[in-house]
Amino acid sequence: MQSLDTIQPKPERIFGMDFARCICTIIIVLFHYACHTASEHKLFFQLPSGNYGSLAVTIFFVLSGASLFHNYPDVSSIKVFWFKRWKSIFPMFYLCFLFYFLQNVFQTHMLFYGPSPLTLVLTLLGVDGYFYYRIPNYCEVGEWFLGAIIFLYLLYPFMIKIMKKSRFLIPFILTAGYFAVLCLNVFTIDSFRNLITCAASFYIGILFMKHRKLFFENTIFISISSVIAVVLLFVPVQILHTFKISEQVHGIFAFLLLVSVGERIKTFKVSTLVKRFSKISFPVFLFQHKVIVNVLGVYNPLDVAGELLMITVAFFLIIIFSKVLAVVNDALIKSKFFVSLEQRITHDA
């Protein structure tokens, strides 16, 4: 039995979104390097209205919503959809986690070197990073936003069904929830990381793709968005700074700018490099934090030249590890076990 992906032709990739994904990935790597460097010359760390990390994460959520709607404007089978999302995340996540978990086991000579083994359930579900602020666990790879995106992937089929029945219900729920988060402090997690805030950026990405001609092909709108995105790189605009609304607004406009720039350079020679890097962006997310910490543990320079050298070394190692992980993961999901599993899951779809 063929999978749905082989029966239905995949939508054409949007190069502008690949470009946005690459830039977002690079910014996150540079931001985390800046978080750990001992140097005072922290590249891509602070913005006039926030920091580059929050900006990149917002772009990431908008991009995730847009990409998902581009590929799955309709979800005919929730079971198949969830399996496809699981296959795109968890095998690679488990492989990467297992590498660092075993490394710690051999170093400590303890199988459970951290808190209660029961917290490994959070890792099994891919949400250990998301809940690390509250529950000490075995989080080794990935970032908090991996857990958030997993929750959003679970919700996505229901969001699509609701959108078909009502144009206003989801915006109403998200708006009400957003103000509840801002005014009532209903979550103990940082307001920028709570699921409602993440879902708001995610849903905006869906709307951008649903009304693609209005947002991506309107020269005036793109021009205004691009100006705002560039201005916010240099001019402080404090909109409820505690809740990082400025960074979220900036990220939304920056997404439109990056997609627009990407679409205009897709005929250049650099496009091949962008496409290749985009394909390993997820393993880069998984590896980058650990590699940066280990690299700076060996040498943490204070001068600009030394900092640029170690950024280059870190990037090189991250890309090498990510490429290896991508190749191993590709072989795994093409194995007889995974092919058989996919056939069973999609058999009744």
Describe the sheet with the most strands: 2 strands, antiparallel
Low-confidence stretches: 1-7
State the end-to-end CA separation. 10 Å
Residue share in helix? 55-70%
| Order of SSEs | HHEEHHHHHHHHHHHHH
The protein's oligomeric status is: single chain
Indicate the radius of gyration in whole angstroms.
Answer: 21 Å
The counted number of beta strands is 2
Number of helices: 15
Q: What is the 3D form?
A: globular
Which whole number gives the mean pLDDT? 90
Structural class by SSE content: mainly alpha
Arrangement of strands in the largest sheet:
1-2
- In total, the number of domains comes to 1
Strand content: under 5%
Topology:
Elements: H1 4-7, H2 15-36, E1 46-47, E2 50-51, H3 52-71, H4 78-108, H5 120-124, H6 144-165, H7 169-184, H8 195-210, H9 212-216, H10 219-231, H11 245-265, H12 270-279, H13 281-298, H14 304-333, H15 336-346
Helix pairs in contact: 2-3, 2-11, 2-12, 2-13, 3-8, 3-11, 4-6, 4-13, 4-14, 6-8, 7-8, 10-11, 13-14
How does this model look, in words?
The protein is an all-alpha fold. It has one domain (4-346). It has 15 helices and 2 strands. It is globular, with a radius of gyration of 21 Å.
Brief descriptors of the model:
2 strands, two-stranded antiparallel sheet, mainly alpha, 349 residues, disordered N terminus
